[in-house]
């Protein structure tokens, strides 16, 4: 009888560690061979965005000129306004940055999941701040914020993926990602940090084991730490490591701790070298596991993801592009199209920041710009009152209703990967079109630009850009803005812009172009897919001039116009239709 009881215990422990059967996973997102499936066993393609900047700020998101760790930014604020008001700022920041309105909007736009980049210090104290050594103090702020997200995602029937973005001590040499202080022991330097990470995941599992809105636990974001020769000057971020033993060992340990409590949720793993080096990580050790990879600034062809498709086949487990973004709309549409063609879910980065290549842009007002100028050494130190007002206004600007929503970015992520059709960006007003309001759509249909994305990783570090002017839209079209106008420039031969417009009255019109050039140029104009003018334009000596074309018969209602650059570099501001 004792022997039989022992076998039962061993079987119980085995199934609790390997941890998964479809029979006991009713209602939860889970894996089925190479797919992620819902409670009904239906294939799910995760379409999500990560909430970078919410619990964990990186310096580039705030446009600061110094080191990118959050603690450095926080210390810089504290020197200006004091500790108490700094804490008030961070409380307001987290209160405003993500609200139910944000999640409601994501659902409306077409997303079905959210990735929460967690900072461990909102859930527990750092090891060197614990009152009692090797004990864990649980902080309710992080759990409270997570609970709110769970409720908002549940109301929208969306999945929430918990992502340990900043682990105790920091998990990599890229210190900005995890808010790592290099003067203190890293996650890999002392066992106490690893014990705390395991304990935190166990606590998260205790609290959320029955929560079906939680889609997965993403154990360690982008580890980037060489375990094989870092001190000898070898590449330090773990891209070339061949064994990755400490990483695998820790992830197995975390998984075991979770499975002691939670048999329901998918576990997401990431390789070394910013998530993509899986040398030594396989074979998988759990039956409900997802292999994540991150993709930035490389080509969007099958070769760029082939190794992960091979991992999917070899491990009989789904793969997920857990992070990508920070590029142009053309790159976004191509990358997402590639993922969905291969039945790979994806998650973009980030939802919002101080910058335009994301769905939501946080505005920079005069007060915060003065702070940035001060930190650059280009302005006087603000008073405590001025700095406090500026930083609190920044927190207020993070609300979605106070931000700029970039619908072109959203269209590139949701519609363009599945459609080559163009659609109007903005309606025509007073028989004129602003040059920058060309149609929404793919490169090659709504516009053509010779440098439409940034492929610097694939090009060996050669930096490129999409919109060289950096204004207004996130396509390859080069748009500039000054106090007088928003205009298209840096034109190259063969590039074009496509417009869909509506005329309330048909008849004979003259089309006029507002252009500034410093050389002779030539353009071609098509209306409703028919060329009606190849127009040579003389040097305007840098002055804005209205250039008339031949007359053309335009129909009442919807028309299209294609404006193609044949030769010369010039500035292009407007099109207007003069009825004759």
Automatic annotation (TrEMBL):
- Occurrences of domain Glycoside hydrolase family (ranges): 91-352
Cytoplasm as UniProt keyword: no
Its keywords, alphabetically, are: Carbohydrate metabolism, Cellulose degradation, Glycosidase, Hydrolase, Polysaccharide degradation, Signal
Q: Would you indicate the residue range of the signal peptide? A: 1-21
Under the heading InterPro entries, the entry gives:
Galactose-bd-like_sf (IPR008979), GH (IPR017853), Glyco_hydro_5 (IPR001547), Glycosyl_hydrolase_5 (IPR050386)
Q: What Gene3D superfamilies does the entry give? A: Galactose-binding domain-like, Glycosidases
Give start-end ranges for the coiled-coil region(s).
Answer: none
Q: What family is reported? A: Belongs to the glycosyl hydrolase 5 (cellulase A) family.
This protein's name: Cellulase family glycosylhydrolase
Q: Which organism is it from?
A: Christiangramia antarctica
Top-down, what is the taxonomic lineage of the species of origin? Bacteria, Pseudomonadati, Bacteroidota, Flavobacteriia, Flavobacteriales
């Amino acid at each position: 009888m004792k022997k039989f009881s022992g076998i039962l215990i061993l079987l119980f422990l085995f199934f609790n560690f390997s941890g998964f059967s479809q029979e006991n996973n009713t209602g939860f997102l889970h894996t089925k061979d190479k797919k992620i499936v819902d409670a009904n066993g239906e294939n799910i393609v995760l379409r999500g965005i990560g909430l970078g900047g919410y619990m964990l700020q990186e310096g580039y998101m705030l446009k600061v000129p110094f080191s990118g760790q959050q603690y450095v930014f926080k210390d810089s604020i504290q020197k200006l306004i004091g500790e108490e008001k700094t804490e008030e700022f961070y409380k307001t920041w987290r209160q405003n940055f993500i609200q139910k309105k944000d999640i409601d909007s994501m659902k409306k736009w077409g997303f079905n999941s959210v990735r929460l980049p967690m900072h461990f210090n909102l859930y527990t104290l750092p090891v060197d701040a614990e009152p009692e050594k090797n004990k864990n103090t649980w902080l309710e702020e992080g759990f409270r914020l997570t609970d709110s997200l769970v409720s908002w995602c549940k109301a929208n029937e969306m999945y929430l993926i918990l992502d340990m973005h900043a682990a105790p001590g920091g998990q990599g040499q890229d210190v900005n990602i995890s808010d790592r202080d290099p003067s203190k022991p890293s996650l890999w330097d002392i066992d106490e940090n690893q014990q705390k990470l395991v304990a935190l995941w166990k606590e998260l599992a205790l609290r959320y084991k029955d929560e079906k809105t939680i889609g997965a636990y993403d154990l360690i974001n982008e580890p980037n730490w060489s375990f094989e020769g870092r001190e000898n000057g070898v590449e330090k971020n773990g891209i070339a490591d061949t064994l990755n033993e400490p990483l695998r060992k820790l992830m197995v340990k975390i998984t075991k701790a979770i499975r002691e409590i939670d048999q329901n949720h998918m576990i997401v793993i990431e390789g070394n070298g910013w998530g993509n080096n899986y040398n030594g990580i396989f074979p998988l050790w759990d039956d409900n596991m997802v292999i994540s990879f991150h993709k930035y600034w490389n080509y969007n062809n099958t070769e760029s993801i082939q190794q992960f498709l091979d991992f999917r086949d070899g491990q009989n487990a789904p793969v997920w592009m857990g992070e990508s973004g920070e590029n142009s709309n053309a790159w976004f549409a191509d990358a997402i199209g590639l993922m969905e063609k291969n039945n790979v879910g994806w998650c973009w980065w980030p939802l919002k920041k101080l910058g335009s290549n994301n769905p939501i842009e946080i505005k920079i007002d005069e007060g915060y710009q003065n702070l940035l100028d001060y930190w650059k050494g280009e302005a006087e130190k603000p008073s405590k009152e001025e700095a406090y007002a500026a930083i609190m206004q920044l927190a207020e600007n993070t609300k979605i209703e106070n931000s700029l929503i970039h619908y072109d970015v959203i269209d590139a992520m949701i519609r363009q990967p599945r459609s080559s059709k163009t659609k109007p960006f903005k309606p025509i007003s007073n028989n004129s079109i602003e040059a920058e309001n060309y149609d929404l759509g793919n490169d090659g249909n709504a516009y053509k630009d010779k440098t439409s994305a940034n492929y610097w990783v694939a090009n060996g570090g050669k930096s490129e850009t999409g919109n060289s002017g950096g204004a207004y839209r996130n396509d390859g079209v080069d748009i500039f803005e000054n106090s007088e106008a928003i205009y298209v420039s840096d034109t190259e031969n063969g590039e074009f812009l496509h417009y869909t417009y509506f005329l309330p009255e048909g008849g004979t019109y003259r089309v006029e172009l507002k252009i500034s050039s410093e050389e002779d140029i030539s353009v071609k104009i098509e209306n409703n897919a028919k060329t009606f003018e190849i127009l040579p334009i003389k040097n305007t000596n840098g002055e804005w001039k209205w250039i008339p074309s031949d007359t053309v018969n335009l129909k009442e209602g919807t028309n299209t116009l294609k404006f193609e650059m044949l030769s010369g570099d010039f500035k292009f501001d407007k099109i207007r239709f003069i009825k004759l």
